Amino acid sequence: MNIFFKTTKLEKIFNSEKELVKAYGQEKAAIIKKRMVFLRAANNLYQVPITPPYCRHQLKGKYKGCFALIVKHPFRLIFRPVNDPLPVLDDGGIDLKAVTSIEILGVEDYH
Description:
Helices cover 28% and strands 24% of the residues. The protein is α+β, with helices and mostly antiparallel strands.
C-alpha cells in the first residue's frame, strides 16, 4: 500500500526510530512501527484486520472518512484513503478492496 504523510514533520518522525521514540515513547513507537510494516505490506485496506491487535475501524465526527488502528489504549494511528477518485460502493461506503493509498494523519487520543 502507498503511504503518504500529512506533513513532512510527521514523515520525518515516522521514518526515524529515534524521532518516533522521542515523539511517542519506546512502547508506543514499537507498536507504531509494527502497524506501519503491516500497512505497507497490505495490498489494500480490506486486508487490514478489524480484529485485535489492529482493530481497523472507520471514524466519525471531525475524522469522518478516516480510519484508525489501535496503538495502545487510548492512542490510535489515524489515516485516510487518498485514492483519486475515492473508490465507493453502490451504497456510498468506501470500497476497502480498492483503497491502495493512505495518508497518515497522526497518532492521538481522539476520545
